[in-house]
Amino acid sequence: MPSVTAKIILATRQSPLALAQARLVAAGLKACLPGVKCELLKVVTTGDARREWSLEKQGGKGLFTAELEQALLRGAADAAVHSSKDLPNESAPGLVIAGYLPREDPRDVLVLRAGVRTPMSIATGSPRRRLQIARMYPGAAFTEIRGNVDTRLKKIASGAADATVLAAAGLKRLGIETWPGVEFRPLEFKQMVPAVGQGAIALQCRAGDEAKFAPALDTATARQLALERALQGRLGGGCQLAFAAHAAVDVLFVFHEKTGGRSLPLTAEDYDRPDAAVDRILQVLKLAR
User: Fold this and answer.
1) pTM for the model
2) Which of 2, 6, 41, 225 has the fewest beta carbons closer than 10 A?
3) What is the average pLDDT value for the chain, to the nearest integer?
4) Same CATH fold, 218-289 and 1-106+197-217?
């Protein structure tokens, strides 16, 4: 086992969900690396500070990660904890993704105000979610929503909109199984394809430090995300593009604003050679450039 320093400083955003995820990383590191202590460095990102911004209009990729990367580059932290779906495809020079914790439930959850069966107003700033949920409820009007998970739940319960969509993994990590005034309806992959990386916590570090964190990270999740992120990289996915991909063992679920939802078979070779798999997938979807 690689030698490690006695203390590992983890850079994290300050939201309740981000802190819960950082604590999961810290617990995993301490379990795999006896004697190691972890300390959290709480960082305010641009996306956190600019709550009035539309992530779709501003371009959300990097808004929740850049300041965490800067903490790594200046040596203030040893690793940064990210929601994988927030990560741009390329790390800042000198940084790498060390890996991922085992993936949590990647599904989306439709959050309905209690008593609502067919929502006519749905709050989401995500083009991916908006286009997919519009196919389920074609008469619905859409509005944006920002804030922490509990803020969004309170807004729906109070009538700001009939519904919103949240990640199942975030709800579980916060210990939220029920909430006054709302109902949870999990969405299967054929109804709503998750964002690339959804449900996975990523650990980023300085290049050359990857082996230090490897014992706490999950190979199967890394193989899934290598394929998903390779596809995203080729398509240039970001907060402005309605695109989603989820590798579910032997099936790839894909949504693109030009193709709609599709499911394609996957083999072990696709995970071994993700770039070649992406070539094939783009040909099938007729999205090859």
Assistant:
1) 0.90
2) 6
3) 91
4) no
